[in-house]
Structures are given as structure tokens and as C-alpha cells.
Amino acid sequence: GGDGVSDDDATVSAVRVLSHALWRRYQHFLDKTTPFIMYRWISLAGIAFVYALRVYFLQGFYIITYGLGIYVLQLLIAFLSPQVDPEIQQIVDGPTLPTRGSDEFRPFVRRLTEFKFWHSLSKAICIAFLLTFFSAFDVPVFWPVLLFYWLILFVSTMKRQIMHMIKYKYVPFTFGKQRYGKRAPPSVETTSGRP
């Protein structure tokens, strides 16, 4: 009887070693893709397009798509929100003196980073895609109602988020961010001192 326990322990140990090795490979792949922002988002758009085609041609799985849409909206709000909510910070810190426009610049720090936003979105779309292979998740619903409800939810949520951004004067995007790296070599005209 004792041999069965050691066999089970060996099997569990082998599964743990294998799962850890697979997790390390997956994490290594993610780490290598981090700097390639544009390519990551293009590949995600391709995956989303394939998912949309599958749902369109199957004429079903609208509940899965609605759930995916709600999750995307939640991720978008986290991406557009500051890490420390100024409204809560104001309550915690208590009343403060009025601030001026010339106060020290504080960079915008997101609650959800771009990479985590992309990664969570990728996982969600892949899971939704896999769920379309199981008919148990194809609940018959009238999809225009779900679409209409999602659009109302999206508009009201984004309106609230924009009002929050205006009230606390933050912009979650950096336009014209200075990039460091390769510079164009100076032209002959600028080095010679003549126009």
C-alpha cells in the first residue's frame, strides 16, 4: 500500500515540475514581447477579428460576447484611471490649501498598465474563443438588446470617467512624449555654418 502513495507523490511532483517549466517559458515569451507594443496590439486585433468572424458565422454565443464586452469595458476604465484615485486621496488627506497651475508636475500613473491591459484582453478573447467550441455556452438571446444595453453602459461609464478626468485635471495619455534613442546625424548644411 505504501508504494501507491510514493507513485502518487512522484506523479504530482512531475506535474508540478512540468507546469513550472511551461509557466517559465510562457513568462519568458511575455517578457520578450514587452517592447513590441504595436505588434502586440496588431496581433490582438487579428485575434479579435477571428473571434468576431467566428461569432458572426455561427450566429450565436452572444452571451459570451456580451460578457467579453463588459470585461473589456472594465479593463478600459482601469487603464484610464489613475493608480491613486484623487477623490479617495482627498478624503484620506483631508482638506488642503488651493493648488495653483504652476504646482510640481506629477506624471500620470495608471491603475492598469498598458502591458497588463493588453495581456488581460488577450487572455479574455482567447478564453471567449475557446468557449465558442462548447454548445452549452450558446444561450439563445436576442442580441440587439444586449448590444443596446452594452452601448448605454459604455456611454454612461465613459461619461462618468471623462467627468472625473475633468474634475481632477488629469489626462491619461501622453502626446508628444520625448523619445530617447537614435538621432538623425547633423546635415552638412548645419555643420558648415552656412544656410
UniProtKB/TrEMBL annotation:
It comes from the Eukaryota. One of its GO terms (cellular component) is endoplasmic reticulum. This is Protein RER1. It is a multi-pass membrane protein. It is found in: Membrane. Keywords: Membrane, Transmembrane, Transmembrane helix. Its main location: membrane. GO terms for biological process: protein retention in ER lumen; retrograde vesicle-mediated transport, Golgi to endoplasmic reticulum. Belongs to the RER1 family. The chain crosses the membrane at residues 37-57, 63-80, 141-158.
